[in-house]
Amino acid sequence: MPTSDHQHDLVVWGATGVAGRLTAAYLAEQYTPATLSLALGGRSRDRLDSVAADLADRNDAWEEIPTVVGDATDPESLRAIAERTSVVCTTVGPYTRYGTPMVEACVEEDTDYCDLTGEVNWVRESVDRFHDAAVDGGTRIVHSCGFDSVPADIGTLLVQSYASDEYDAPCETVRIYVDEVRGGVSGGTLASMVEVFEAASTDPLARETLRNPYSLAPPGERDGVDPGAQRWPRKDRLRSVWTAPSPMAMVNERVVRRSNALLGYPWGREFRCSEVVTTGRGLKGAAGAGLVAGGLGLFTAAMSVGPLRSALQRYAFPEPGEGPTEAETEQGQFTVRTLGRGTGADGPFTVEAEFGADWGPGYGATARMLGESAVCLVREEVDSPLDGGVLTPASGIGMPLVGRLRDVGFTATVSEATSGDGHA
């Protein structure tokens, strides 16, 4: 039964796509009608009913799962969906093309919202257009609740919370290491990447958003000391390993900086953060860093040229809606490590967090991260001074999300860093 006056606690919008179907499957397996009033949303009644029937067949607790039909380009239909639910959890991308009307509908109807976008240009648009109205309505619009950007944002929150408790001081610098990633990529993810490069080629604001490391900060606060993402192979001083640029740094670093700003700069106005990919030690690590940096550079260059971008999308990328099977997502895994360094009353300290799971990061793990983010919003399990706005996982939900993810099998640990790995 619904836990509010709404018809549904939670609508998974885009439930017939790869990410939406996996999120819906996870929620139907993890919860029952007695604990979560779940509905599936999309534009095709037949496809929605097929997914709903399949999930009900696979989970004895569900006799049926309701479906709601709307169109991402029809604001009226989206308002009708938002009006009937407490939380909309959306996987419908590319968000630059399809995401704005649903955010607007949720703000108008005071309906909480979460998504898994990594399209930083669109998040900036959402901030500029909807943050003030969401604050006024007490509506939580929480972007980037998947692999972009929960591990980075929540990992930073873990080390900062530990530093505050143990040393009564924040970490002045946080470094996020993508240590291990194994999993597939869908056509929808690649289509979102195409949209980012398309926007940058035509929209000066999108280009400024990608150029400025503080572009997601509140208006008037979009500058600072952080130089932005690493671009070249580098031997890391903290861990004595080789590192390469991270393709996710473009969004994750900005999300972490927005968290700091929204929370009132508890980590300081000169707080710095960066995200990198680790490739190992010695010559092998150096060579790996060079290969990753070179490959990422070539890909970025190709995606920045219109005809090459179109050719890649047409001939090399899978179609939107295509992606890893459920079995393939269960075979992946990831580990993201976060090191924070600060200075307390007794001198410098280093804190280490590890966040990971034994599922493919883009889909199996993301379905769980997004699903549990939505459940936190449904049940108002939120540790935040903010009642509404365009928020981040750390500023909009906070530590309750850590607890939920631990309960469903994620690793989320934090402690003082040891000296055995060159940290401290």
Elements, N to C (H/E):
EHEHEHEHHEHEHEHHEEHEHHHEEHEHHE
Low-pLDDT stretches are 420-424
- Report the total helices: 16
Q: Could you tell me the radius of gyration in angstroms?
A: 21 Å
Mean pLDDT metric:
93
**DSSP strand (E) fraction?**
15-25%
Counting helices, strands and paired strands, the structural category is: alpha/beta
> Total number of β-strand segments?
14
How many structural domains does the protein architecture include? 2
Strand order of the largest sheet: 3-2-1-4-5-6-13
Described by strand count, sense and barrel closure, the largest sheet is: 7 strands, parallel
Helical residues, percent: 40-55%
Q: First CA to last CA: what distance?
A: 51 Å
Q: What form results from the Cα inertia axes?
A: globular
Characterize the structure shown.
The structure is a single chain. The protein is an alpha/beta fold. The chain has two domains: about 10-145 and about 365-405, Rossmann fold, CATH 3.40.50; about 150-360 and about 410-415. The chain has helices at about 20-30, 45-60, 75-85, 95-100, 100-110, 120-135, 150-165, 185-200, 205-210, 250-260, 280-305, 305-315, 325-330, 360-380, 395, 400-405; strands at about 10-15, 40, 65-70, 85-90, 110-115, 140, 170-180, 235, 240-245, 270-280, 335-345, 345-355, 390, 410-415. The strands form two sheets. It has a seven-stranded parallel beta sheet with strand order 3-2-1-4-5-6-13, with helices on both faces. Strand 11 and strand 12 form a beta hairpin. The longest helix has 22 residues, at about 280-305. The chain is globular.
